[in-house]
Amino acid sequence: LGIGMCMGTFPAALIVPKLIVSNMRQTLPKPPNDSVTQDSFAPMFLTSTIIGAALIEGSAFFSLVTYLLEGHFSSLIVALVCLFTLVLFFPMPGRVAEFTQTQHQLWLRSS
Which residues contact 96 (CB under 8 A, 6 or more apart)? Predict the structure, then answer.
């Protein structure tokens, strides 16, 4: 049961945040606009990171509960894999800077 949920949420954790960022970028005023700086894209990173991590975290907790109720060792392994994957969502300064720079360039090209 935990494996199935994990298989469903892993693709969603990769796709949904990108869709949200794309929609958030479209709500910004069109370039050239001096009010939009590279720092304007940091909240997008925050939102996409929270949503992606929440999807993985939900699978991890579900797998842990499945392990506690049924005692299947495979559920524990799935939970540990999910928890390890959460480390990949941890915001590092370099990742934030790269994200904001990339999104700013995409926004500039959208004119």
Answer: 42, 45
Angle, CA of 17, 22 and 26, to the nearest 5°: 145
Which structure tokens are listed for 25? 């970028």
Question: Is 83 within 8 Å of 60 (Cβ atoms)?
Answer: yes
Please tell me whether residue 22 adopts helix, strand or coil conformation. helix
Residue type, 104: H
- Reading the chain (111 residues) residue by residue, the pLDDT tens digits are 677 877 888 889 889 999 999 999 888 888 777 788 888 889 999 999 999 999 999 999 999 999 999 888 988 999 999 889 888 888 888 999 999 999 988 888 876
Burial of 36 (0-12, 13-18, 19+ CB in 10 A): middle
H helices of the chain, where?
2-26, 42-70, 73-88, 93-109
Q: How far apart are CA 85 and CA 9, in angstroms?
A: 12
